Amino acid sequence: MNATTSGRFGWTVVAPVVAAIVLAFSWGTHPGPIGNTLVGVTLVAAVLAGVHHAEVVAHRVGEPFGSLVLAVAVTVIEVALIVTLMITGSGDTSTLARDTVFAAVMITVNGIVGIALVVGALRHRLAVFNPEGTGSALATVIALAGLTLVVPTFTTSESGPVFTGSQLAFAAVASLALYGVFVFTQTVQHRDFFLPVATGAPAVGANPADADQDSHADPPTDREALTSAGLLLVALVCVVGLAKVESYAIEDAVAAMGLPHAVVGVVIALLVLLPESIAAVRAAARDRVQISLNLAYGSAMASIGLTIPSIAVASIWLDGPLALGLEPLQLVLLLLSSVVAVLTVVPGRGKPLNGAVHLVLFAAFLFLTAAP
C-alpha cells in the first residue's frame, strides 16, 4: 500500500484537501444542522486519512520514531489550540489548560491503553510488551502529572490551586527537561526497549509478503513518505480546527442537557486524540501492543511536557489566575489510574482483564465529569 492508497488521487489524498477547504469556509462560523453534519463527516475522513499517513511515515522512519511523530504532531497542534482559546476566548479560562491536560491523560492512560490491551489480548491471547521501556514511559507520565497537576493543589504561596510565577517557571523547565530526557532515551540510548516484542507468530491476517507485518509495502519511497508527512500535517490541523468548529454545536448540546461545561473539553479532547486512538487499536490488532503503549504514554507526556511550558510563556499575556491544581475527585481518579497502570506494566504481559480495568476507570472519568 503506497501513500495514496489507490492511485495518485486516492481518498487519503483527497480527504485532507477537502477537510482543509471545509475548515477554511467554516472557521469562525456557527454552522447549522446541515453544516455541522458536513463538518462531522469531513472530520472523520480527516482522522482516518491522518492515521493512514501516520502509519506510512512511521514505517519509513521506523519505531519508536513513528509513534513519536504522531504523538508530538497532534500535541503541538492541540497546544496551539489551547493557547489560542485562553488568549482570545471569552469567559473564565483559568481551568482550561488543567481540564484539557487532565482529560488527555485519562484518555491516553486509561482509554487508549485499555482498548489496546483488550484488542491485543483477545486476538493473541496475551498482549505482550517490554516492561522496561513502557515502565520508563509510565514513570515519566506520573512524575509530570504529579509535578504539574497535583503539586499546585498543595502549594501555599498563592491562594487556590495555582503556582506563583517562579513555581510555574520551574514546572515548565522541569517538564521540558523530563520530556527531553525521555525522548533521548526512547530514540537514542535505549531504543530497543520501545520496539515491538517478537512473539514468534505472525500477526492475525498478516500478509506473508510483508516482511515486518505493518500492512504497508516494503518500504515506502522517500517521496511517498514526504507526501504522507505533508498530508498528515494537513489532516491533523484540520482535525483540531474542525473539532473547534464543532465545539459550538457541542456546547449547545451540553447546555441543553444540563451537563457541566467541562464536558465540552472532554469531547473536544476525544476528537483531537481520535487519530492516535485508531492507530493504537490497529497496532494492537497486529500484535504490536508496544506501539500502542508508545502512542498512549507518549501522547500523555507530550500533552503535559509541551502544554505547561507553552502556558507558562502565554501567561505573560494572560489576565487572571491559571488554575493547574486538580480537584479532589480528579486527584482520586489520577491516583487510581497510576496504581492500576503500574500493576499492568510490571509483568510485561496483559490479559483482557487488565484492559477492562483501565476501561472501567476511563468510563468512571467520563461519567463523573458529566455527573460530578
TrEMBL record:
Membrane topology term: Multi-pass membrane protein
Any one GO CC term of the record: plasma membrane
Keyword Transmembrane helix appears in the UniProt entry: yes
Record-level Gene Ontology MF annotations: potassium:proton antiporter activity; sodium:proton antiporter activity
Keyword hit for Membrane: yes
InterPro entries: Alkaline_pH_Ca-Antiporter, NaCa_Exmemb
Subcellular location: Membrane
A Pfam family annotated for this UniProt entry: Na_Ca_ex
Domain Sodium/calcium exchanger membrane region: 38-187, 228-368
Name of the protein this chain belongs to: Ca2+:H+ antiporter
